[in-house]
Design goal:
single chain, 517 residues, alpha/beta, Rossmann fold, GMP Synthetase, Chain A, domain 3, 9-stranded mixed β-sheet, 5-stranded parallel β-sheet, 15 helices, globular
Amino acid sequence: MTQHQRLLIIDFGSQVTQLIARRLRELNIYCEIHPYQKVTDAFLAEFAPRAIIFSGGPDSVTREGSPRPPASAFTIGVPILGICYGQQVMMQELGGLVVSGEGTAEFGRARVSPTSPLPLLDGWFEDGPEQVWMSHGDHVSRLAPGFEVYGTSPGAPFAITADLSRDFYAVQFHPEVHHTPRGAKLYENFVRLAGFTGDWTMAAFKDEAIERIRAQVGDRKVICGLSGGVDSSVAAVLIHEAIGDQLTCVFVDHGLLRLNEAEQVVTMFRDHYNIPLLHADEAELFLGELEGVSDPETKRKTIGRLFIDVFQKYAGQIAGAEFLAQGTLYPDVIESVSFSGGPSVTIKSHHNVGGLPEKMGLKLVEPLRELFKDEVRALGRELGLPEPFIGRHPFPGPGLAIRCPGEITREKLDILRKADAVYIDQIRRHGLYDEIWQAFAAILPVRTVGVMGDGRTYDYALALRAVTSVDGMTADYYPFSHDFLGETATRIINEVRGINRVFYDCTSKPPGTIELE
């Protein structure tokens, strides 16, 4: 993306570094996150950023060997914004002093008051002190030469500092999180001061991506694993616009999709977009292998293994294919080159086509690898995908298998499809669909006694789940009204044979996950 004005985010290991990038992308600023280990003098010269942001991080600048930016970051003549650890590393590297353990740690909400006007803070302090989010144990005890203080908090006498002669700014708090309500305004001011014009748009990205796909692929063939989700669908339509019938999609139908979903995917891509599509209807294979399986990890691994086998079988029917298209997004890229490089705890296995490119001797086409999820939706609109499809809630690769805790049976899947359809219809009828990140029903591995029509029933219990989230990493349950829940439970029990009790899951993430398995 060298034709765009570029901002570099140097990552020192903060859990919320991605939020910085999201705030900037919302301002039509192209930015990239790179771990501090990768950012050398040579890297900076090649990347040629118009501005730099230092992220927060868990380390202490007082520790020998703690993360540092390259010295040239301070001498190439571009504006810098340091956040939390980023502020501390600026002070330490430029002649100030940071100390630990003197009683000025702050964690959580704090109030920052101004000491002098600062262009970075235009629009702030109009109603008095600003709420911000602090998370620091160390603190700056002496400013580096050239810096002045522009804001203080009870635990941070140098909460906002700047060296205006060099366009260096530093704050002790995190403006990227929603607990700093006007944090987005601070980023808007910073990129304005750095001279950005906001040239990163989805219309421009679409045209550039099409040219890059054509340059990479030439006249050769591409296969795309189509799940029917937003990411793979946008990737497929974009690639088809670039190379036409050189693209063939393989849609693996594992029998674990929602009501009428397979028909909708096939109709949209084969009939509406006229994209060559192989419909791999392998429901019997998947359901046969899953029969009697109740462990969630075994379910995921079985589905992942079969998916690869089936995909490879059908892809082998496409003579001369040299490329595999995937809907890889920027968060996936960031996590693959994480700050620490170390493994994290495996909460659950993820279902994808991992290993296929090497196994099949294919090269990858990943046209969405620079985008966040909301940008993929914006690109989908540029490509003309129907709005109800673009705005669909995420759906997991293993499908209904992980919404059916315990043993999977065809009977339970049929009940679940119908109940889920009623639930989503209720959400749409009440105009709530777009407020919710993800909503679904799960059939529980328990039967309960009920009374229907003066007769005894012994049917399944159903759990309803709906969450709000920004990126799926954390989530809160959606606060439906009791009237809505009562009406929905009544509809499900009346319209779906096999359910006689309905629960609502009000667990956030953490401690729960969004899906039940």
